[in-house]
Specification:
alpha/beta; 256 residues; single chain; Rossmann fold; 12 strands; 33% helix; disordered N terminus
Amino acid sequence: MSAFAEGNQVKMLHLQPKNSTMKKKKAVFNWSGGKDSAHALLRAQQSGEYEIVALLTTVNRETHRSTMHGIPPELLEAQSRSIGIPLKVINLKPKGNMGDYSEAMSKVVSELKAQGVTHFIFGDIYLHDVRKYREEQLKPYGIELVEPLWGKPSSQVIEEFLETGLKTVIVTTMGDGLGKEGIGKIIDREFIDGLPAEYDPNGENGEFHTFCYDGPIFKTSVKFSLGVPFSESYEIGMEDGTKKTFTYWFADLKLE
């Protein structure tokens, strides 16, 4: 065998999922529709460890868009069809009602546990309070938390994301951050290099949220239009008992 052929053989073996002969763990992927979800889903698929039976997402029942990312259900469904994994939607009350979220999630987790699901997969990177909350929610049901992107420096995660070939666009920004001008920007090398130093390159602190529409997890590209950006403000109760108003800009996403 030539050196070239040997090299290609090694490459092909490297790309094969790990543990391909082992029984896969039945899992649900907690899907936001954005780049970190897409990146984590790709890594989970590449591991070969999981049978992912559903994409679980939350939608605001008043705005009819996904929480924080502001993605309409028809585009989430389009992502689901292209990925080839069914979408399961949890309809929630307006932002800021964590009690409603916890109650709804508890009900869904119970249902999925009864169906044999043993693992919940998320796309978190380093927010320990978020991970702790998820673990506390899942522990009573014996559901194991999986975080494919967890523990790496955010700078490393974004570099690995750029190498995946996943394509994503900014659809939500903080009003006092990237603002209206950030809507519609593509997450690429130029964008990352131009971010202010205080911004997390993955938007992990809420600086921006994205919509992923193409790449290796998709059979076909998801067709969409951004529409005219609009803003919304929310009054959120803080831990010290005070209330604070947060303003966000959203793309008026539509399925084409």
